[in-house]
Amino acid sequence: MNHFISPQDVPDLNQLITGGIVAKRNPFADKQLGENKTIGLLFFNSSLRTRLSTQKAAQNLGMNVIVLNVSQDSWGLEMEEGVVMNGANAEHVKEAAAVIGQYCDIIGVRSFAKLQDRDADYSELVFQQFRKYAGVPIVNLESATRHPLQSLADCITIEEFKVKARPKVVLTWLPHFKALPQAVANSFCEWMNGMDVELVVTHPEGYDLAPEFLGKAEVLHDQNKALEGADFVYGKNWSSYTSYGQVLVNDPAWMMTEEKMARTDNGKFMHCLPVRRNVKVTDAVLDSPRALVIEQAANREWAAQAVLKEILLGMQE
Amino acid sequence: MNHFISPQDVPDLNQLITGGIVAKRNPFADKQLGENKTIGLLFFNSSLRTRLSTQKAAQNLGMNVIVLNVSQDSWGLEMEEGVVMNGANAEHVKEAAAVIGQYCDIIGVRSFAKLQDRDADYSELVFQQFRKYAGVPIVNLESATRHPLQSLADCITIEEFKVKARPKVVLTWLPHFKALPQAVANSFCEWMNGMDVELVVTHPEGYDLAPEFLGKAEVLHDQNKALEGADFVYGKNWSSYTSYGQVLVNDPAWMMTEEKMARTDNGKFMHCLPVRRNVKVTDAVLDSPRALVIEQAANREWAAQAVLKEILLGMQE
Amino acid sequence: MNHFISPQDVPDLNQLITGGIVAKRNPFADKQLGENKTIGLLFFNSSLRTRLSTQKAAQNLGMNVIVLNVSQDSWGLEMEEGVVMNGANAEHVKEAAAVIGQYCDIIGVRSFAKLQDRDADYSELVFQQFRKYAGVPIVNLESATRHPLQSLADCITIEEFKVKARPKVVLTWLPHFKALPQAVANSFCEWMNGMDVELVVTHPEGYDLAPEFLGKAEVLHDQNKALEGADFVYGKNWSSYTSYGQVLVNDPAWMMTEEKMARTDNGKFMHCLPVRRNVKVTDAVLDSPRALVIEQAANREWAAQAVLKEILLGMQE
Question: Is residue C1, in this structure, part of any structural domain at all?
């Protein structure tokens, strides 16, 4: 494996899931693999889980880690080609990516959707440019449209907790007053489409996800109906894709509660975190044994470690 | 030892002091102890000495270090339970602490007093919550009411420089135009109460420290009288505890000077730093051989190393 | 070698250039040298290349690295002596430098010119103070008037790419709407004066560099004439030294283009980065094989490694 930007970069999804489970059992078994290798982690946006779990995973593999909070620590980066750079951005990604690629063996990048211009966000320009100019493998630490390290951790978690060969997995929209990206929801659908699950997505009218991410998922606008018999309920808010970046609905009736969870087949509740308690989901659900949110977060370390290991192995070929 | 939040967590104060002196003599003797262990350092506030000395101590013990400047790097954290999270804080400490505890073997936290609400500050909610939810040992890098790593470094420094079996130690309030927390003063009294010293505290009217921290110390409002025969003069400004968070006095007559130090028994001057020169204490005092402020700061490394070593040993049991 | 603040600290420039080339061939050969040594990197300003390349170089040598973004992470530092510290700066460099020197074996400092007061900037007070009070070697990560790690990387790059025994090197001013420091231009001249090159500096009237940096360089105000027969064209913008910190000219006619480069003797284009494309230099030049900007940036790692190695060797004596 070279890059890890989208599932198209992954030759074998199941191998990565297994890799995560293996890393969890024996975190330091590959500590020689990353010796004298450096990963640079570039954050254009806030991060807690991704920041810590990726550092930890890299250190488990014996790598050195350099963290760069781009806007605080360094120069604003111009992503567009051919422009006259007389604005706020002092450096072009052509130089920045190539330079970072001189010092780092792998580069992780986090750059959220700006939610102003759908075509711009969905073109994933930042990742296109880093892939093109860095000259080293790029790891997606959450892009405008995807969060694959989260999705891999979610796959690992479902593998660990499923009690049926083909569980029913329901992705449900949850209310929130702010406009959030579609990245986690997109990515979750994209990865679930590659697993042996029954995938149902439920959301209010106007919150359809992009078809290329939704794949073969069934869509229902009746949340209660969608939850029936669910083994896993994956909660997430996202802003509208069709009315791009808008908050069309902020209806507390969509909040996840114990009453709703009772409709499931002893279903587990999942969320990528951070989660606003009693806005998206009640304390009762999060504080119950149904909630797998900490297990998911813990699996972020093993997801990152499986990905970095595959990339390091790819370098030896 | 499990946590290091307050002296109540410390089974044996003298063992820690000795541990610091031992670490100073041979900093790398325990480099195997922290192998494959990670400490996460969470800063809600600025830090120089604590940030550097704790990183250094952890690295001396062979640990990996991950630093998180919470407000810059990550999400605002909600500390109160049961609230509807529709405000500025995007993540609850219940999740954040538990998640960080998945990646880190030890968590250090710095969170200053806000000086708005005494009950809130003195409840030490941030540390209560991290202790409750992180699932791993918590180290106090300065809380609303205490700075125990500083106090331990101060104890080590007094042990090193004392020339009498039972020295006279004077904690004197110094003037400052800004409202500062009581944490260092509280903690210093609390730790001095556990050592064999004669403790005198001197401050203007209205600056009484909380009785539970003051302990058996003698209080004098006459600074000159307090200084007579002192072996150690520990200077610090703090805002009022009784008129909570207020600056009642900013009288330069309380500034420490060579003339005042002349009243001591060849006394040493101590301060936790940062110190505003010629506001709290004159250049002449700080630039004289009396000043132990750099020695104190240097001992922060050994204090942190002694604490981390005890916690790491506790994990092996 | 003890400090690396200016070329006056360097016993043998050629040895450092050779050291950089040797490090590039075998980056991990001296990994034992920095064992149990810590470098602290203090940034008062933004940094990409310096931040990453110095971390990387230190890790190649087996050192631990602690990064401090002074204004974000810590306290404002007072640099002047004898002042009453009742302003914004909470800590004096006397304490800060001495304290950091307790924890770090080497300290790197970046502190740009403020461009308000020429005497203040050119006195290099920040570096004077760190040199005086830290008690450990200081490395210049770009000061008000110099950027010697950049210059050393530039020397290495010229050594690698020169095709004549005594190449013609032209430093040309480039247009920019913002006022930038003279540090890179100063330092480049200062280091070129120590190498066997023909050095020509070209800039509009009013942009003369300080004579002590310019040295034996020839100065021309006709850019086209200066470029004739050049082997290396080093582009850089700087604000006026004589009308201190002012932007006197922002004439796009000074931008570097392919047409101008055609006047050289198959000359290479160099720039320290970041560079504003199509403001200082066209895309066509930067995207051509003439451009050595990535090679220069890559050599920053080896320049830093050569410097740190010499300092570490100096500690063993």
Answer: no
